[in-house]
Amino acid sequence: MFKSSNYLKWFFLFIGFAFLYIPIISLVVFSFNDSALASSWSGFSFRWYVSLFEDEALLRAAWLSFKIAILSATAAVVVGTWAGYVLARKGPFKGFALYIGMLNAPLVIPDVILGISLLLMIIEIRNITGFPEANGVFTIWLGHVTLCIAYVSVVVSSRVRELDRSLEEAALDLGATPMRVFFSVTLPLIAPALVSAWLLAFTLSLDDVVIASFLNGPGFTTLPIEVFSRVRLGIKPEVNALATIFIVAVGTLVIVANRIQSKNR
Predict the structure, then answer these.
(1) How far apart, in whole angstroms, are the C-alpha atoms of residue 156 and residue 33?
(2) What is the pLDDT of residues 59-90, one digit of tens each?
(3) Rounded CA gap, 129 and 114, in Å?
(4) What sections of the chain are H helices per DSSP?
(5) How many angstroms separate the CA atoms of 32 and 43, rounded?
(6) pLDDT (tens digit, 9 = 90+) per residue, 90-126?
(7) In the beta sheet, which residues pair with residue 44?
(8) Is 44 helix (H, G, I), strand (E, B) or coil?
(9) pTM reported for the whole predicted model
(10) Residues 6 or more apart in contact with residue 90 via CB below 8 angstroms
(11) How many angstroms separate the CA atoms of 35 and 45, rounded?
């Protein structure tokens, strides 16, 4: 009875992993397909990788997405760290419920509503101040920072709540100012959470389609929008090649991070 139950667990585990990874494996395999048809295999070839690196529009969109993702993740971590710290250490205070609601709003508001709201706000600001002159990198960055701050604050506040308050209190007793305690004691202790939050924000920004589609302008097409516009007309082999490069890059980073973490332990 115990053995059959154990086999059943392994069977469902295998089904779960197969459901998750067989599509990814097939995507990687067909990125080396010589045929332009995704449904038929005609031989091994690197032609779509060569075609990918000759596609200026796709490369330009990829560079724009990486640039916006790096800027968005960095700004979101700076603002979201303070927001998460206040959430974990300074509450409750007058208006604390409103503060939590405003901070967590992007987590529960649909991206379509958030994109429309930001677009209307930017148009109104442009009518009053004349800035920004047109939608582009700044408007997309602003939308992604708004989205990512909520996620960063959740990650940081969870980590801050786990910290031993006696460490901060000891530093205060020794004469350190609250700002000195934050930068010298708290910040180094939550550094792993900041790295995780930055990677999460980077991924959210790099993956966003809805908000960027509302806030982009002519000549400022991000990679997800470019890929989505192409996939609607049929899956292109260059998209498979691009996805494979992303999978290899992310997999390598995860393996390296796990090795470093294991060494530190």
Answers:
(1) 44
(2) 899 899 999 999 999 999 999 999 999 988 88
(3) 22
(4) 2-30, 47-53, 56-85, 96-108, 111-129, 137-162, 165-173, 178-181, 187-189, 191-207, 210-215, 223-231, 237-264
(5) 8
(6) 878 888 888 888 888 899 899 999 999 999 999 999 9
(7) 33
(8) strand
(9) 0.86
(10) none
(11) 9
